[in-house]
Design brief:
The chain is an alpha/beta fold. The chain has one domain: Rossmann fold (3-Layer(aba) Sandwich). The protein is built from eight helices and eight strands; from the N terminus they run αβββααβααβαββαβα. Strands 1-2-4-3-5-6-7-8 form an eight-stranded mixed beta sheet, with helices on both faces. Helix 7 links the parallel strand 7 and strand 8. Helix 5 crosses helix 6. It is globular. The N and C termini lie far apart (about 65 Å).
């Protein structure tokens, strides 16, 4: 009997060792140094133990967390509300929000060297914590941030770039106004066919592909799924934010990240 108990204990330990790598660390906020004074960057971290890459999600708007409930961000931004879908597709996810010393993260701020430094700090945290290649995924104003950081930091820090609902005109840092020929990582541009935001025009987003001449793989995907758009055409619950097409859109993005093609 004693031998049986010892054998059973050994089997239990062996099972726990097998299952341990599959367990996912608890999701939650981490506060990272913004690189100036006491300013901190709120980052919502989600780990998938089987991930082959880490995605840093850069929300649009003012990049606020929204109301925090049960320790989770309440923002309705497309990337924030779709964060679990990215994890379920097999990625670590870091959702990066506005630094604590900023009242707004508008277009000029998003192309500033200070903001690029913030993104660099989040990338360093991702690489140290997870040890996986890092992709930047931006939506709306977040595409301005993602593009500026990719140009500044290059392929040594960033494995790839995804732009959804890109800002295409009229604003500081509009994607076409940046030095796109300096981007040398795989780049995916995603846009909803019915996006009616006047600064995020689908045809102008598609035209960005020709400017990405040094990206080793580049592709434009036009999303047509979804339903029941609501509110301002430039806000997250209109076509601009892929309402009721979150799962399909995330699947298109993550399939391409796993196997980039032109």
């Amino acid at each position: 009997m004693r031998l049986f108990r010892i054998w059973r204990s050994m089997m239990l330990v062996a099972m726990l060792l097998v299952l341990a790598p599959l367990a996912r660390a608890a999701d939650g906020f981490v506060q990272l140094d913004a690189g100036r004074g006491d300013a901190r960057i709120p980052v919502y971290a989600m780990e998938n133990a089987q991930a082959g890459a880490t995605l840093i999600l850069l929300p649009g708007g003012d990049a606020g967390t929204g109301k925090i409930s049960n320790g989770e961000p309440g923002s309705g931004n497309f990337l924030v509300r779709a964060r679990q879908l990215f994890v379920d597709q097999g990625f670590n996810v870091l959702v990066m929000f506005r630094a604590s010393d900023l009242r707004v993260l508008d277009f000029p701020e998003r192309i500033s060297s200070e903001h690029v430094t913030e993104i660099a700090h989040v990338i360093d945290y991702a690489r140290t914590t997870y040890g996986k290649p890092v992709w930047l995924v931006g939506t709306s104003r977040g595409t301005v941030s993602a593009t500026a950081a990719t140009i500044a930091l290059g392929p040594e820090r960033i494995a790839g770039l995804v732009l959804t609902s890109s800002v295409t005109n009229r604003k500081a840092g509009a994607i076409g106004s940046q030095d796109l020929d300096k981007i040398s990582v795989p780049t995916l541009v995603v846009h909803h066919k019915l996006d009616a935001c006047p600064i995020c025009v689908p045809s102008q987003a598609e035209a960005l592909i020709e400017r990405l001449k040094n990206a080793p793989q580049r592709k434009f995907i036009l999303v047509e799924d979804g339903s029941a758009p609501q509110g301002d055409p430039c806000e997250a619950w209109h076509w601009h934010g892929y309402p009721h097409a979150e799962a399909q859109t995330v699947k298109l993005i993550t399939d391409w990240i796993r196997q980039p093609s032109s």
